[in-house]
Each structure stands twice: as C-alpha cells, then as structure tokens.
Write a structure and sequence with these properties.
mainly alpha; 2 domains; about 65% helix
C-alpha cells in the first residue's frame, strides 16, 4: 500500500466494515479483524506482498468460512442483549425505519451474497475488481449481483433497490 499503511484509521475502518458484512455482529467483527491482523503480523517475515489489504481480507474471509462451517456443524443458541442508544431524537423514526429495512434485507442474504453486496454497494467496486478480490470470474460476480437484486426486489416488493430499501 503506497500512501497508506495497513494500520491507518481509515484502512482499519474499511476492514472492520468488511468484517461486519461477513459476521453481522460488531463483536464478532472485531474478533475477526483482530485474528486477521495477528495472522498478518505473524507472517511479516514472508516476502513482500503486492496488496496487503487484499491479503488481510483473504485471511478474514477464510477465517469466516471456517467459523461458518463450524457453526453449521455445531449450532449454538445466541442471546441478544444489545440495546439501541438514541442520540438524536429528531431522527429516531428514520433510524428505526432504516434499521428495520436493513434487518429485513440482511436476513434474506447468505454470507456470500452479503460479501458481494458489500463490495458492490459499500466499497463501490466494479464487477472486475470484485472478481479479483474473491477470485471468481467476472460473469459470476455479475450474475450474483443480479440475483441479489432480484431476491431483494421479490421479497421486499419494491420495483428497484432504491424504492425504500438500501437508499
């Protein structure tokens, strides 16, 4: 990474958002990010890598897949003990509506669809960039994006993705 180091606040925030996309939970995302950074630092003696950020994302993705498979084999009950903290009462209604919309959409998608949606909608990557990132053909990425859009449209009843959801 030419102008930024891996530990810049902006880069760490990007990595955290990516982890949140995979995990759907802030605490799990922190754990995943910490694991990936520790693994990256352990391999600091390895030859220079061309893209450190992509390497850390790969570590995170592989770790998430391992954890996902493990949780499917050995399911556990989770308890939601989080509470919502409202800072601006004027936008409370908008926040609740946006959160409800996002929860509906997020439950429709599996982790791999969320990953594609993250790269496409949040990171604003092109299909070609996404295909390089997750190591699949560009056509596969385009078809996955199309399927995600259709899934969201069919389940939410919107004519397009900006019709109330994901705006």
């Amino acid at each position: 990474m030419s102008e930024q180091t891996l530990f810049d606040r902006a880069v760490l925030q990007k990595l955290y958002r990516y982890a949140c996309t995979l995990c759907q939970d802030g605490d799990d995302a922190y754990d995943l990010l910490q694991y990936a950074l520790e693994k990256f630092l352990q391999q600091a003696g390895a030859p220079e890598r061309r893209n450190e950020l992509a390497f850390v994302r790969t570590i995170m993705r592989n770790r998430f897949i391992d954890q996902y498979r493990h949780s499917n084999r050995f399911p556990q009950e989770s308890y939601d003990d989080t509470t919502m903290l409202v800072l601006d009462e004027g936008s409370l209604e908008d926040m609740v509506i946006a959160q409800a919309d996002l929860e509906i959409v997020w439950q429709l998608l599996d982790p791999f669809e969320r990953e594609i949606l993250y790269y496409w909608a949040v990171e604003e990557m092109t299909a070609q960039e996404i295909s390089h990132q997750i190591d699949v053909p560009r056509g596969t990425v385009l078809s996955r994006i199309y399927r995600v859009r259709k899934k969201i449209e069919s389940k939410t009843g919107t004519g397009n993705m900006s019709g109330g959801y994901l705006t």
